[in-house]
Amino acid sequence: MPRPGGPVTEEEAAALFQPLEGSVGVLAAVSGGADSTALLLLLARWSSNRGLRLCAATIDHGLRPESGDEAEKVAALARLLGIDHRTLRWTGAKPVSSIEKAARTARYRLLMEYAAEIGALHLVTAHTLDDQAETVLMRLAAGSGPAGLAGMRPVSARGDLIHVRPLLGVPKTRLIATCDAAGVSWSEDASNADPRFARARLRAGRDVLDREGLTAERLAVLARRMARADVAIEQAVDNVWAGLAMSGPAQTRIDGASFLALPEEIGLRMMLRAVGKHGDGTSERLKRGEALFDAVRDALQAGKSLGRTLGGARVAVSKGQLVISTAPPRRETV
Ligand SMILES: Nc1ncnc2c1ncn2[C@@H]1O[C@H](COP(=O)(O)OP(=O)(O)OP(=O)(O)O)[C@@H](O)[C@H]1O
Prior knowledge:
This protein is α/β, with parallel strands linked by helices. 49% of the residues lie in helices and 16% in strands.
């Protein structure tokens, strides 16, 4: 059990790294900040007698003058700990707007390519309890449903890799304490406090939220509950899908009366699942999916026909049935 303060202990680390047990190759993403420096220290200790290959990588996004030195500092620490380290540089054109998003996409692409090169099966990042709380707040602001409010998952798939976030329940203060206890310094990324970024603005307002009881711990509890609820809803959708959806490679048909009788969240997810199956994979704003869901229900209730497109799929109501198929190219959208 994590202690209220102080460095993360070896026993705690063993429990946190449980998802990595039995892995043959682990790649740790280490930016050089306090969180990922602590991750590297803890992983180095934990992996020493486990016969797995631990490697670390730092992405130099080339966006700040000091990023090269920060990567070199991580490399030096890795050398000291006897861990293979590579600095991966984000080269090529960089967009003027949405730079954070572009940097993130490039970062994971570089990490995945490097993981494939070294044969790592697990990618480990140092997202903390505080990062989870910020994610939940940002998703609240975006009007997310249960899946979004579940925040980041401790273990998820990322391409062929398993992405593990072992520190998701650990407050940043304890990771700072872990570095301090080891006498290891870390780099402070100035952009973490840059008010141009939503995360930084949220961080700056955390004191106010804490005073109102919206603490990181409570937001993380909300995320865990939402994750459980989301699993339950998805399981219900699996069951209903098996019984109701007549689904082939070209289209999915669902009886209209049965569809109308479903709890709305299940019906919505059924429709979106079929859109995902027959569409072109373009992500659609949930708001558009919800608007179309309402239109589908209205049409079924009124015994009318309907034909729209969503995410590259054609969503039609015809003869009392909901029919979702691949949309012909270049049709009008909702
Ligand atoms: N430049 C980097 N090099 C290597 N790893 C990094 C780098 N930046 C971030 N990471 C990894 O990602 C974790 C989360 O970092 P941060 O919170 O800054 O990213 P984010 O963009 O907010 O989150 P996400 O990775 O989910 O997009 C870090 O703890 C570290 O493990």
